[in-house]
């Protein structure tokens, strides 16, 4: 596969170099340069919001460092969790003395490394709490929702955590509201073509011509249903049927919708999907607030899309509308 | 006796073995996972093999150096669990210049328990832990490196064969429990292949 790289081993670091060169509000920091943090530093007295994860999903994770979003983010290698030192460095970079919320996807490596980092930071008096992104409905049944993986919908949890922390809430409240936001996000993905890890000899999976895979993870982990390619409207319906069959207990009448490209799928096709999503949600009597359509959470050159529904309540809607600003997402009141 | 030099030789052998194993393990991981197990292990073991342990006279410090090299090179679950095991063995041998081969079985059993606690998987879930458990048990009472190598290799292979036809019960692969039947767990496969390389 053709890639615009120099050496596979330099993939992450050179991309991060370019990211901060282009966006001076972000800096690279940490022992091994594997932390992206806000250039202005942690604000004293504000709860810090930190994330982390494997690389290859830009703008996720570290692209969302900015006002009203993340304060710092640790960066692993391609599809591998960040190492423990980067997690320690990121938490420290986000710490303004009021504690730090660790908000990351529910993956084994990420969990272990953030856990070890907090154990070590306990000795330094930095209080931390954890909320795990668990929005991928294809990764576990509703009865085991806590086992689900985090995919594109974690973006909504970032927004809520960042907003309530900016408003000056204490760590316990930031954690509780963010956990509630996460529990009200549902995502499902569809893959049309695979991606390839730099340095690997083959793509992470193969799909026969004319077939698609529903429920695929953002690392190319197999989905739940493999099926024939179908028109966009039919696919949107299929995905929405799954999402609407899995509502949070107290879902109201308002949702935010994220129609996301996994990398190679163009925005044109996302709008074709969104057009149908809008029709369907209108029929369901659901009002859409602040829709997002674009490449927000990708898997390098994987082709496909994901749809996320964020079931709002009054407070979450208000927080969603709060100002936020990073290179890949900004919200203005 | 197991000394820092033993660890130095072992990492060199494992590093050589990875030249061939890297793509094989990537492919094995790609079946139900994200296809990076080989690349990750090559980087972690490369970091370990680059250490100079020849002047080290504390076996615990040598194990700890290997654990730090693993942690510096990855945040993946398998790599982090390897570091957890090495940290456990560092604690067991801290302040001593060497360990007997007969100490290896209890050291691996303690490492297995530390990994169970850190990772949250259980024995029987079809992970690297089932391979390690089999080896820890098989090495019970073994006193020579030759016997340890032979027993460990046989036990790791046997565990791989036993679990091949069982479903995976943890992680993303548990969603494809049926698809995981007949397929080796990549962590377990990596463990068996590396044990074979060390025992050769």
TrEMBL record, chain A:
Record GO biological process: glycerol catabolic process
Signal peptide from the UniProt entry: none
Protein name: Dihydroxyacetone kinase subunit DhaK
Source domain of life: Bacteria
SUPFAM superfamilies: DAK1/DegV-like
Organism: Paracoccus caeni
UniProt entry keywords in alphabetical sequence: ATP-binding, Kinase, Nucleotide-binding, Transferase
One annotated Gene Ontology cellular component of this protein: cytosol
Record Pfam families: Dak1
Keyword flag Glycoprotein: no
Residues annotated as domain DhaK: 7-329
GO MF annotation, one: glycerone kinase activity
Key word Transferase present: yes
From TrEMBL, chain B:
GO biological process, one term: glycerol catabolic process
GO cellular component terms attached to this protein's record: cytosol
Ranges of residues in domain DhaL: 5-200
PROSITE patterns xrefs: DHAL
InterPro entries associated with the record: DhaL_dom, DhaL_dom_sf, Dihydroxyacetone_Kinase
Record keywords, A-Z: Kinase, Transferase
Any one GO molecular function term: glycerone kinase activity
Matching Pfam families: Dak2
PANTHER family, A to Z: TRIOKINASE/FMN CYCLASE, TRIOKINASE_FMN CYCLASE
The protein's name: DAK2 domain-containing protein
Organism: Paracoccus caeni
Phylogenetic lineage: Bacteria, Pseudomonadati, Pseudomonadota, Alphaproteobacteria, Rhodobacterales
